[in-house]
Structures are given as C-alpha cells and as structure tokens.
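HUMAN:
Just now I want nothing more than another pair of eyes on a protein record. I would be glad if you read both lines and explained how they fit together. I have put the entry right below:
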Amino acid sequence: MKHRTVVVTGASKGIGRASSLKLASDGYDLVVTDILDLSGTVADIRKTGVTVNGVRGDISNPATIEKIGKKIDETDSKVIGLVNSAFSMASKPFLRLNDDDWDHTFNVSFFATVKLCRKVIPMMLKVGGGSIVNISSVHALAAGDVNSAAYDAAKAAMNALTRSLAMEFGPENIRVNSILPGLVTSERIIEWKREDPLGFSASESTHALRRAGTPEEIAEAVSFLISERSSFITGSSMLVDGGQMASINETAALNIVRNSALLGGRNARNHSGKRR
C-alpha cells in the first residue's frame, strides 16, 4: 500500500517546520522544501519513524518545483496534502517598493503557491482527492502597517486563489483552505521582541488573548485541515489569530502610536502585524 505524503514548503523554520513535525507525528510521510538548510527539520522528522525527503531550493524557481515533483515520483507514495507556508516580505513604504520588491514578494508568497498547486493537484486527482492548506495572514483582511503593501496584496491574492481552487476541484474531492495567523513567535519575531519589547507588547495587545501565538498552535490547525476531521470544510479562510481580528482595537492602536512617538518613531515599523 502506498504511503500518504504531504508536501510542506518553508519547512526549515517557524510555521512550516512546526507543521512538518506535527504532520509527521500524525503518521504522514513528508516532502519538505526551503531555501534554507533543512537538515534539522529532516532529522527531527525521521525520529518519528516516517519517511521524509528534503528539497533545498528557491520555491519561486521553476527548477525547484520540478525537483519536488521528481522527488515525489521517486517514492512509492501518494500525495494527499500540500501546505504552502513559504513567504517573502519587503518591508518598505509603498513609494519605496520597486519592481524587484513586488516581483520577489509575489513570486515567493503567491506564484510559488500557484505553481506548486499546478504540480500537485494532478497527483491528487490520480489518488481520489486531497487537501491543500495555504498559510495566509490576517494581513489579507486588514492592512497592518505602512510597510507591508506588497505582502498584504500577495496574501489577499492567496485567499482568492484558495476560494477559486476550492470551487473548481471540490467535485474531485480536493479541499482547499487557507489559515490566517496573527502574530506568531517565529524566530524573526523572537528577535524583534528582543530588539523592540515595547513594540512587541503593543502588537500583542491587538489580540483578544493579549499574547502572540506559537508555530505549534498554527500547526494544530494545519493538521486538522489536512486530515479527514475537516472533510466538510473547503474554501474557507480560517482565522487562527488569538482574536486579533475580533475587534478594531482602538485602544491597542493608540498604544502603538504612543509608543512610537515616545521612542522617536523607532516603533513605527512592524507593530500591528501578523509577522510570522
């Protein structure tokens, strides 16, 4: 019997890594990819006893997509899941974003998802269906700050793609959903917390739970949507944001402004965001 395989992008750190480890604990085989070193993720997955193959490369490069396809073909497995977690972000004001900034953000955060879906969906069709989970952001619904126009637009496009693919491939038993995290304590956010504790605290205060989430908490939602436990869920944009989008959070917004003014504008960057 062929093993069930899930492909996960952006798997070296953060949500991608946590999702890979959670899915491995669920018993799925994995094909993981990232532009960064994957050896730690691959080693930890192997400890669970499942089969894992790592593909290191730029997910926006068509050659990497082809490598992923070849790696799947080399294994005696059926692909039933895809988690698109890789992303890129150019943190600049709109008028300073050049064409390269827009191209790179969209190529990694959106078009790589398009291309990988185009590669994996035919494989799912051959085995009777599957589940695709796109890691989006609360920034798809609301602008976070003055430096995230390209990222916001790419994540909104990802949500639109999610709905379109859900409608097109639902009759073939392929479910497609997106997850919208709030602030999540990835490595880059932990670094930001050390550099700017007031700004981090202000961002946490925009969440109903008054704290950031963890990659492992997002991974639980990924596990649910990949599994048959969510068999009647498709086309959804699932908020896993600690209640960040539950309110307009006027008080929290005022705190952000006050903190920024207090520290001479140093906190104006990246305060209200999703930053995973």
Notes: The longest strand covers residues 77-84. The chain has one domain: 3-183+212-243. Residues 99-126 form the longest helix (28 residues).
